[in-house]
Design a protein that fits this description.
Blueprint (H helix, E strand, L loop, with lengths): L3 E10 L2 E11 L2 E5 L6 H9 L6 E6 L2 E2 L7 E4 L11 H11 L6 H10 L15 H14 L4 E5 L7 H18 L2 E6 L2 H7 L2 E6 L2 E5 L5 H10 L1
Parallel strand pairs: 3-8, 3-9, 6-7, 7-8
Antiparallel strand pairs: 1-2, 1-4, 4-5, 9-10
């Protein structure tokens, strides 16, 4: 796993500060939870290079993160699939954009594990929501990312499909071992998927230490 660090990181939209002077270290899988509008998604997009920071640095293993060079996987809530590309082409897309060789053995394994065998030539419109999300999962893990960023990736799915994909994600993360930042509103998902949990509030990040009543603590924090 890689170590991700943010140093004095700030971001703003026009004249409105979203967060300022954030200092934090990420390792393993970190779940970030917080109220809507607190800056979680903006932080994720800033790390991904989608939003330009007002100031500060983002470091991966001590070197400045460069989205053009580093292998960064990004899973948005909307799945992010191109409707005119097939399942195969969508899964291979990140590797092709990054000019990375496509590991055919890994591709075949992912297709099988994701339950997409026989669907390689279908288009997103021919898939269920759960199947489209499986394609997005496959695309990111085929890249062998150094860093995986996930923005509410399972929130649009029904409860049963969401649970299936959460467990599948845990298996794949164990095998591929990317440093992962997961943004979620779901307390139970944050606890299930994260090695550690961070509460974002008032533009600040606070690591939540393990405790017996963690779920209730987080729910009280979000409602207060």
């Amino acid at each position: 796993m890689n170590d991700l660090s943010i140093r004095n990181l700030s971001a703003a939209y026009e004249d409105r500060s979203i967060f300022s002077n954030l200092d934090f270290d990420f390792r393993g899988c970190v779940s970030i939870i917080g109220r809507s509008g607190c800056g979680k998604s903006t932080l994720l997009k800033t790390i991904a290079g989608i939003v330009k920071p007002s100031s500060g640095k983002i470091l991966l293993d001590g070197f400045e993160l460069d989205p053009r060079k580093n292998l960064i996987g990004f899973m948005p809530q909307s799945f992010g699939l191109l409707p005119w590309k097939t399942v195969r082409e969508n899964i291979e897309l990140a590797c092709r954009i990054k000019n990375q060789p496509i590991d055919r053995e890994t591709f075949a394994s992912l297709i099988y594990r994701l339950g997409l065998f026989g669907m390689e030539d279908r288009y997103p419109r021919e898939l269920s929501g759960g199947q489209r999300q499986r394609v997005a999962v496959g695309r990111n893990f085929l890249l062998h990312p150094e860093l995986l960023l996930m923005d509410e990736p399972f929130s649009a799915l029904d409860a049963i499909t969401r649970e299936e994909l959460q467990l599948l994600f845990l298996e794949l993360r164990h095998d591929f071992k990317p440093t992962t930042i997961l943004v979620t509103h779901d307390v139970d998902e944050a606890i299930l998927l994260g090695d550690s949990i961070v509460l974002m509030s008032n533009g600040k990040l606070n690591r939540i230490e393990p405790r017996n009543d963690l779920a209730n603590f987080l729910r009280r924090s979000l409602s207060s």
